[in-house]
């Protein structure tokens, strides 16, 4: 690679993505607790005798020893801390976990520490592994991640006139404006989507409730489907691209159990 090494550091890290590089290496996107998202190369890891292979699988929390380079870091040691084996046993839950990793990769800048999203991602994967509703878990993760990274949707007041929301059915969600429009302002964005009070209430709850309560939260299927569609369209608009993992997830949902 010719990438000058600057110095070693240790950190916990979550492997978001891994791809083959060269004849025997892998290129990783690692979300580290200490330094945020980094790109790192693992040399020779595809050789049969490599001892690093187990710790660099996607959807794995590991302890890394890395050398910092100008553009790419280099992994020299890795030890698995939490492999999330149960997610790999269920294609649907694995697909949701992969989507969360993909979203994290999409919203996080390079080499910018983000402890809240790091902890949220781990907590969300653990909830998935415990059997908590995967769609609600993904909705919660998506809402909170967007909020933490500066893209919190406005769901308490009209995004245009700032009038507090009420209990009527006149609100619409504007993807472009990033929040709800009241009946006086809804013509500002004619593409805004009607959103009932119950859906807004669920969004607020997912943003603020303790994670320990999520397993007890019950949401009607039509409500969760609508929120999923609205939120993903909002995410896609903000990222200015589609997430490939989302397409795979929707195909898994379409095929059913």
Class computed from helices, strands and strand pairing: alpha+beta
User: What's the end-to-end separation, in Å?
Assistant: 45 Å
Rg over alpha carbons: 20 Å
Number of domains: 2
Q: What is the top-level CATH class of the largest domain?
A: Mainly Alpha
Instruction: Specify the overall morphology.
Output: elongated
CATH superfamily membership of the largest domain? Recombination protein O, C-terminal domain
Descriptive overview:
This protein is α+β, with helices and mostly antiparallel strands and 257 residues long. It has two domains: 5-82, OB fold (Dihydrolipoamide Acetyltransferase, E2P) (Beta Barrel); 88-255, Recombination protein O, C-terminal domain (de novo design (two linked rop proteins)), CATH 1.20.1440. It has seven helices and eight strands. It has a five-stranded mixed beta barrel. It has a three-stranded antiparallel beta sheet with strand order 7-6-8, with no helix packed on it. A hairpin with a 3-residue loop joins strand 2 and strand 3 (36-42). Helix 2 (91-107) packs parallel to helix 4 (134-148). The model has no long low-confidence stretch (mean pLDDT 93).
């Amino acid at each position: 690679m010719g990438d000058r090494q600057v110095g070693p550091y240790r950190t916990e890290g979550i492997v978001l993505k891994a791809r083959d590089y060269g004849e025997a290496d892998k290129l990783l996107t690692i979300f580290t607790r200490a330094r945020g998202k980094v790109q790192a190369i693992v040399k020779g890891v595809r050789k049969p005798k490599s001892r690093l292979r187990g710790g660099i699988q996607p959807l794995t929390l590991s302890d890394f020893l890395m050398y910092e380079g100008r553009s790419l870091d280099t992994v020299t040691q890795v030890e698995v801390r939490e492999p999330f084996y149960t997610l790999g046993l269920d294609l649907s839950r694995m697909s949701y976990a992969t989507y969360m990793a993909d979203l994290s990769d999409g919203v996080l800048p390079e080499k910018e520490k983000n402890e809240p999203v790091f902890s949220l991602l781990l907590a969300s994967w653990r909830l998935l592994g415990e059997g908590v509703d995967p769609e609600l878990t993904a909705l919660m993760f998506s809402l909170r991640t967007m909020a933490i990274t500066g893209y919190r949707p406005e769901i308490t007041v009209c995004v245009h006139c700032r009038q507090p929301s009420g209990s009527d059915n006149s609100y619409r969600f504007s993807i472009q404006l990033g929040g709800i429009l009241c009946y006086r302002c809804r013509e500002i964005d004619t593409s805004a989507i009607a959103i009932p009070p119950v859906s807004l209430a669920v969004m607020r709850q997912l943003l603020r409730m303790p994670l320990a309560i999520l397993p007890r939260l019950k949401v009607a299927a039509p409500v969760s489907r609508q929120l999923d569609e609205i939120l993903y369209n909002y995410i896609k608009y903000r990222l200015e691209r589609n997430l490939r993992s989302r397409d795979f997830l929707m195909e898994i949902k379409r095929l059913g159990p």
